[in-house]
Amino acid sequence: MKPNHFYPLLVILFMIPTMGVGQLAKEDSLALVEVVRGFQESIVQKDSIGFNKLFFDQSVGFVGIMSKETEWSIKKNYADFQGIAISNHKGFIADICKSDKKQQEEFYNIRLWNDGAIATISFDYAFLANDKMIQWGHEKWNLVKDAEQWLITDVIYTIRFPKVEPFPFE
């Protein structure tokens, strides 16, 4: 069988259009990583101004859903308890800033996706207060690109208590 010299040329031709897209995606990916870094740093520094600049709107919703195991651990004592936490970014950072506890959110298995106009960041997380884990779970942010800045439009997450469900990401 004769070698096909046309095949390498096809591969190169198909790669050329995607190289520019790949570069754009790389720049966007780096900018998205900066959003993650800014989020974490604002919690540690109790920086509400920096934190609020990461969000698209004046009140971006945070919706947390407890796992069944964690929810039932509370329902033992509070039968009417609903395992849902609804807040917004301003309430979240305000509570952190009011607390005298050292707080941080650690991220694991970060996954980024974007198409240049919208993006998703998802990860496993652990939230700590005074170096003690309070909760862990999975978190997802949707983002939009406004001019040249990526901004978070909503946050959803699961809630698991480490005393009820062991933390798997050490």
Q: Give the strand tally.
A: 6
Q: How many structural domains in the coordinates?
A: 1
Report on the biggest sheet.
Answer: 6 strands, mixed
Rounded mean pLDDT is 87
CATH architecture annotation: Roll
* Helix-and-strand structural type: alpha+beta
Q: What does this entry look like structurally?
A:
The protein is of the alpha+beta class. It is built from four helices and six strands; from the N terminus they run ααβαβαββββ. It has a single domain, classed as Nuclear Transport Factor 2, Chain: A (Roll). Helices cover 37% and strands 36% of the residues. A six-stranded mixed beta sheet has the order 2-1-6-5-4-3. The model is unreliable at 1-22 (pLDDT under 50).
Helix and strand arrangement:
Elements: H1 6-45, H2 48-52, E1 61-66, H3 68-75, E2 84-88, H4 89-98, E3 103-114, E4 118-129, E5 132-146, E6 149-159
Parallel strand pairs: 1-6
Antiparallel strand pairs: 1-2, 3-4, 4-5, 5-6
Question: Summarize this, please?
Answer:
The protein has four helices and six strands, in the order H-H-E-H-E-H-E-E-E-E. It is α+β, with helices and mostly antiparallel strands and 170 residues long.
